[in-house]
Structures are given as C-alpha cells and as structure tokens.
Amino acid sequence: MIRLAPTRRAILAAALLAGTALAGTALAADPAPLVVAKTFVTQSLDPVDGSAGWALVSHGVAEGLFTVSREGTIVPLLAEAAERRDDGAWIVSLAPGRMFSDGTPVEAEAVAAALNRTGAENPAARASAGRLTFTPLDARTLLVETERPTPILPSILAEWAFPVYRRTDAGPIFTGPYSVASFEPGARIALSPNPHYPNAEARAPIDLRRVGDGQAMAIALAAGEVDLAFNLPVEALSMLRDRAGVTARSFPVAYQYMMFMNTREGPLADPAVRRAIDRAVDRATLVAAIRAGRPAAGAFAQTYPFAADVVPAHDPVEARRLLEAAGWSLGADGVRAKDGERLVLDLVAYPQRPDLVTLQPVLRAALAEIGVGVTTRVTEQPNDVASGGDFDLLLWAQHTAPAGDPAFFLSLFLGSEGARNYAGWSSGALDALVAELASAEDPAERIRLAREAQAVAAEGVPVAYLVTPEWHVGLSDRLAGYEPWGSDYYVIRPDLLPAD
Amino acid sequence: MATALRGGAGFLGAWLLVTAAAFALVRAMPGDPVEMLLAAGNVAPTPDAVAALRAAFGLDRPLPVQFAAWLGGFLTLDWGVSPVTGRPILADVAVRAPWSAAIGAGGLAAAVAGGFALGFAAAARPGGLADRASRVLAVSAQALPAFAVGLVLLWLVAVEWRLLAPLTGSVAERLVLPIALVALFSVGAVARVARVAFAEAAGAPYMVTARMKGLSRTRALWRHGRRHAALTVLAAITPEAAWIVGGTAVAEIVFSVPGLSDRVVAAVATRDYALLQAYVALVAFWLLGVHALAALARRRLDPRVGA
Q: What is the pTM of this model?
C-alpha cells in the first residue's frame, strides 16, 4: 500500500474535488456528443455539388422551403405558404422568425440568391419543372417562375436539390437544427446544435461518422462506440437484440422492390402472360426470404396517402389458367411452350441491393410452379441493362416518391415517353392520367388520380410490385426513443434528443 | 550516375506505361459515368442532359486527347474535379492519402520486422514454436478471408476486451487494427522467406568457422546469417507491397478508416474516372517506389547485386 504524507493527501483530495467539480460543470454545460454512424457522409457542404443537398438534409444541417412529413405529405418548413397565380407563377411566403445558424434572418433575398445559384449549377434542380427563377418581392415574399408549368411547386421545393443556404467566406450557412463545427469530406462531421433553432438547449452535439460496412457498424454499436447506427444489415439484428443497452428497430422504407417485365417483344408482350406471372408471386414468401419487409400493394409504400391498399392475390391456379388460355401448354419437362417456343425468361438482379439477388431463386421456384422456366443473371450494371432493355424480368429497388409526390414515379417509369420506362410499356389510359396529374392542384384529386393510375398499371402489369422493404437502426440507451422515418432522407432531425 | 539516370528513366517509363494502360482500362469498364450520375440524382437521362455533362467532364474528346490532358494536369498538380462529388481530386487525395500511407507503410514495416524476427527464431529452432507459428500464419494468410478476420479482430478488441475504440477513438487507436490486419497477412510469408535464408546461411561453410570460434548456433546465425536473410527478404518485398495495396483497402473498409482505398471503392461503383485514374497513378508510384528502394537497399547490402 502506498502511504502519503498528510500534506500530500490534502493536496490530492483538493485536486480530486476540484477535478470532480470541473467535470460536473463541463458535463452540465456541454453534454457528451451523440455518436451517429451512417453508411454515407457528405463529400461537400455546397448543395450544388452532386447529391450534397440530400446528404445535408439527411444530416440535420440543411432545410428546404417545404419538406415531406413522416406521413408522406408535403408540409411547409422555411416557407409559410405557396399560392399559384393565374399566370402559372407562384408566390411563396416565408415563415416568420426563422434564422440561419449564424443568427441572420431567413429573408427572401438570401433564399432567392441561393436557389437561383443551385438552379444554374445543379442539374437535379432542373429535373421536375425546368429552371426555377426566384425573385424577392419583399423580405418575406418570393415570386417563383418555372420553365415548365407545374401545379405542385411545394413538392418540387421539397426535393433534396433545394436546401436554403447563405454563402459566406467560411462556406455555406444553413438553417437546420445542427450546424457544422468541423468537416472531413466523406468521413466525419462534428455537428453543434444550431443556437438559433427552437429547443436548441435540449440538443447534444453530434459526432457523425461514416462506417461503410454494416457488420462493422453493428460491432461499433455493441462496443458502445455508437449511439445511432443507420442502417444495419438484417443478419446483425439477432446479435444486437440480445445485448443490454442496445435497441434494434426495424421500419418500412419507401424504396419499393419491384420486377419490371419487358413488354417490347417475346412472351411478355402478351399482358396475359404478365398477369399470370404477377399472380404466381407470393409476396409473403418473398418477405420471408429477405427476413424483413411487407408485401407491396402498389408503386408506393403504405405510408403515402396515395398508396394502393390491396396486395395482389397469390393465385397460381388462375396463373396457370391464364397461360393455358394464352396458348402456352405444359410440356413433358414441366416448362410451357407455344408454337415450339419454350417459356423461359431471363431474370436479372444487381448486387448493389443484395435483397434482390436473394429474391431471384424464390421467384424462379414460384414461376416453375406454373410452368415458366427462369434463368437468373446478376449484373453490376443495372442502369445499362434497364435502359437497354436487355432482360425479360428485371428486379429493381426504387424510392418511388422522393419528394412525397406520386407523379415522379408514374410519369418517369410508367409513362410511354418516360425517360425510365424500362418495361417499354405504353398505355394511353395511363398517359392521360399522368397528364391530368401534371395539372391537378387539389391534393385529394391527386390522390385519386395516382390510385387510378396504379389500377391501370395493375391491369397492364408492366411491373410487379413485390416488397416494401424494412431497414434497421441500432440505438444506444441515450437514443432508445428515436423513431426512424421511412427513408434515409431525414435521419438527424430536430427531435433527435438524448435521453440524458 | 549513369546507373541512377538509367534507373530513373526506367522508373518513369514504367510508370507512364502503367498509367496509360490503366487509363484505357478504366474507360473500358462497362457503365457510363454520366448516366450513372444522372440516375443517382433521379434526373432523366435526356440526350441534352447527357451531352452537356459529357462536354463538362471532357468525355466527348478522343481518348488520347483525354489522356494527354490528364497527364499534363497530373504532373502540374491539377488533378481535376470529381464529377460525382464536385470536389477537387487533389484535395480529396491529400486528406485521405496519409491514412492509407500510414496503414500501408506501417503494415509493411510491421510485417517485415515481425517476419524477419519470426523467421530467425524459426531457423534457430527448426520444428519449434516459432517455426510452427510462421507456417500457420503463412497458410492462414492464403486460406482466410481478410475481411472476416478483420471483423473478428474488431469484435474481440472492441466488444469482448474493450481495449480500444477502433472506429471512433484517437488516430493511434484507429490505426492499430488496420496495421495489424495488413501485417498479419504478410508476416507469415516474410517469415518463411527469412527462415529459408537463415537456414541456407546455417549450412554455409563460414558458419562452421563461426561455431569453432565458440559462438553459439543462435548467435552465429544472427551475426553471420542476417545480411543474407535481409537480402532475400528485400527481394521478396515487392510482391508483398502489391498485396498491401489490397490489404489496405480491406482494412480501410472493415475499420471505417477514411483513406484513399475506401474512397476508391465508391469511385468504382460510380465510375469516377478522375479519382480512379489518380489512384492508379499513385499505386503505380508506390509499387515502383518500393521496388526501387528495395533494389537500392540490396545494392547497399551487397555490392555484387546489380553490378
């Protein structure tokens, strides 16, 4: 045992007391940072660079004039309201009392300067209605003119390309609940609570780090290094669910898994064959195969008000009847044929979404039951295969309503002239509905049109919707109350508050 | 002087050849970066949009013109801008390269030092613990996937033993496991090479003389065998340096180190030509550099080499 002289003991005790007091003060003034691990951290703080705008919103740094609520509806954020004029231009009024993180009020002039610059430099900002031109009318009012007329400007302004910012010599300043304290591109961001954001005192600083591998992220969570792990592989869940101090939570996301059918030529040019394939698929089995998710009812996840609500029936008897009626007779080898041609289809998936590869053998087995042969293929180049039409059946994952509006997917992927009409499908009825959707302003009418368009597509079956997948987050006790929303668009939000 | 000039010219020629071949190969990869970029941004790939981006990135020019422009820029430290991130490549590389260099050089140094010592111990006591350990390490490096070994290391060190915070700790804490992983997969091979060299030395006639002077076997082996073993290990370093490039990439991904390889994996997925080309040029420089340094060291140790 080490013996200390009385004087030394007194000094040591005083030092310990002072240290404890100092530590207590520090804790009270500056809570320990929450460590958030994500598979992606922005490479740039400038919203005109690539998809930096998406990342900055997801990181809780940036906000737009409008946003998508947890329920999938468009709600004002930095804006107060938007109104369309008779000439097609829009008047957007700004919400009062909002400030950039440096304390500067959010006024029309700064908003217009930022969004005009983004429109000029980022092609993603011109995708939905062409170039948008913002003109300040007074401190809280903006005139917005669009290159192409649109009835849904709030939805467009909720797209990730439109965060509001103010340019300074030190870099862009934003309005979100957190501001950037330090930045390592693509690797790490230290976030401080934005002192000019409501409820700032309840927030802790955040140490946001990129952890590229899901298993490593799960281990970091188990080791207590991380408070929020977004998102985890399904294989890691059983290990985490048994650990004290860790909560794993699953949630449905809007990235629908679907299967495009190439309608241009061959057996799938016949809608009856496509319908038969759709009926042969048991969505519940697909969910079981990937161990997470829900059977998909249509193009959109159930969180959206315009989602279809009836999951297509699994009916192999009807599927066989449809194929017989279409002239495809069962051969001795168990595969149907017509006029000497065997019904064997090329089913393509891509490894960037491993779930899709997992679904391939399950779908092959389901189609074998109705006498349809399947050869499976995995490609590293899904975009090339999709746009080149080099497939019979193509498994695909897609966020179908990134800005909370159904027109994006319906026109781009199902419209006859849609730039991503991978199925090569053409339907006058659907095109008419999409055209109506392009000019409809009433939200209830837009929901009706979107559902009708999905019903038309369900008849023609250019695509079979399979699964609304689930993602998984891991949480430490400090964030055990965190509720993830249905995508990776809004991860760090104003309500990310530590339990302590 | 003439030898040095010849060596320098050979170095530059080899580097130029490798970078030109890589330039062609990178562009021959399937997948159009412009269409991938538009798809990632949910932007319709209209002919106008595609043509505008091609022109903006200089991809509409003939391949030799693109290469000449890239080479000129690379040599004058204008490495271009990543079409994916919008950031200057040089700035990106400058931030990330130190991590990769620390892991690669640290892993190589640890593997050489550890492998040399293990090889010596194995040769000093054939069939002993060190000999068996070096064999197990060499075979394991061939048989085990580095990625899985990295995850197990992470689990043991961070979760079970709580020794380090390998993903969120200090720079030193974050480098320990990546360097260990890279070294672990090279140390066995280096040890076996060193063991063979020490064993050759042990059978040499001068070793008998040394023993007759009264030196123990171990002491004689160290004193008179280490130069020969060092020469042999130096000759074997170049292939290990090549493995270390791959090993560093695995280590960076498993341990989430913000190094160059970690960025390159993402760049392959997005066909970020500008970054891939800079990476290949740097890796070629690393491999040729290690080879040249090893050759220089061998010449220093044994003037007969390369004479």
A: 0.81
